[in-house]
């Protein structure tokens, strides 16, 4: 503690008379910007000043005693405060926003084994806005953001396309994403890593060339019309609306916030409840992502009956972000279209298939990816984990933004780049067979490098493709990454997500197949028990 100069003057002392005395016994701990500093109380007395203090007698002695006990109180509060703040920031059980409408179901009991939080070192890195981040971008994107990066090195991916590895800071990722959105009229644009070595390893191991040219393992044909045609009329707009409404009612689903975690847990619990205790369905929180902050990814698995080692993936990202306030864990980022609509599409697809008692031949994994908005971190962690474990993923569908259409545009667009060629052709056949007869139309658009989570699977060597919303004649949804990404700015309707759910159902039925029909491969016919 320092005695203020004004107090000294009132005692007849001056700053020139003072020097430090040895520290008192008790020190006060102060937390600033994530670091801990120790402030040691000091007395300020020298020479004849000591005599002045002595002559002041009991008054000054009483003041010093009061200060001493105040310091002890400060110390106790400083030690206790972090725990109290953390406790206050954690929502009470059951305090999540309620889900309106028909889609509301009781939350299933969360599994206990998959609730591990991010490693302490990773959490600390996420909290530091000046932490270095190493990004991989296309050369074109880097040209526009080079003022936000340093130490760029040129590399080529497996297709021969030039990419750049450069260093930036965590607090600049928002500006980079804003540039990509405003100037390239798309999302994403980069993969992010905590070290240059990891970024170099990612580029060196790139499997995009193999993934884009790879022939699909199963050689899928459209021969499961009985299942798909039964499913398509069951899509309910009000259920899609209810899921979007619930997810956009969180303050945000930002990867480094408590809301980002609780919203992910709600998705896991809701998906789990749809399974109604089936022993061939499991759910988990995927936490093996050191750079995903507090947010886990969500995976629901339906075990395949006769081709369990062939895996079909349907994915969407579950996080949200506000481009104007990206580093604030309390930012307002409802993310109704981006990408609550994608999660709603998966949820309704899952509901219809499970309610039908459907059992797939191939294993199916529904995935909600963490931290997409800050460099495809969740999906990349999963895809690389599957690659390292030798998981045989035979196809991946990505649904990122499904609920906006305005003006004279097609109903949905096939992403034409960084996708598997055979799978894109299969998507076209699916659409023309099941959706075109409803009067729906399709187009295509190039999305650019690392524009959404399908790129993570492509890089890992797996066949992946994506269907995207129609947007408007000027491009995509104008309120992306703002507090206006709400159902209100989409006409208070989820009608446009209906057709994406129908497409996802067609994809699910024709890739994973139905156990009782046993088509699309050489497997033995299994009787229904």
Strand content: 15-25%
Reported CATH architecture of the largest domain: 3-Layer(aba) Sandwich
Indicate how many domains the architecture comprises. 3
- What letter string, H or E per element, gives the SSE order? HEEHHHEHEEHEHHHHHEEEHEHEEHEHEH
For the record, the CATH class of the largest domain is: Alpha Beta
- CATH superfamily membership of the largest domain: Zn peptidases
- Average pLDDT reading: 78
- Approximate helicity band: 25-40%
Lateral arrangement of strands in the main beta sheet: 7-8-10-9-11-14-12-13
Largest sheet: 8 strands, mixed
Provide the low-confidence segments as ranges. 1-56, 63-125, 517-529
Quaternary structure annotation: single chain
Radius of gyration: 28 Å
Shape: globular
Please write out the topology.
Layout: H1 5-10, E1 28-32, E2 35-39, H2 48-56, H3 58-89, H4 120-127, E3 132-138, H5 139-145, E4 150-156, E5 162-169, H6 173-183, E6 191-193, H7 196-204, H8 208-213, H9 225-231, H10 237-247, H11 258-274, E7 281-286, E8 297-302, E9 307-317, H12 336-355, E10 362-369, H13 377-389, E11 393-399, E12 412-415, H14 421-435, E13 442-445, H15 454-459, E14 464-469, H16 495-512
Parallel strand pairs: 9-10, 9-11, 11-14, 12-13
Antiparallel strand pairs: 1-2, 3-5, 3-6, 4-5, 7-8, 8-10, 12-14
Helix pairs in contact: 9-16, 10-12, 12-16, 14-16
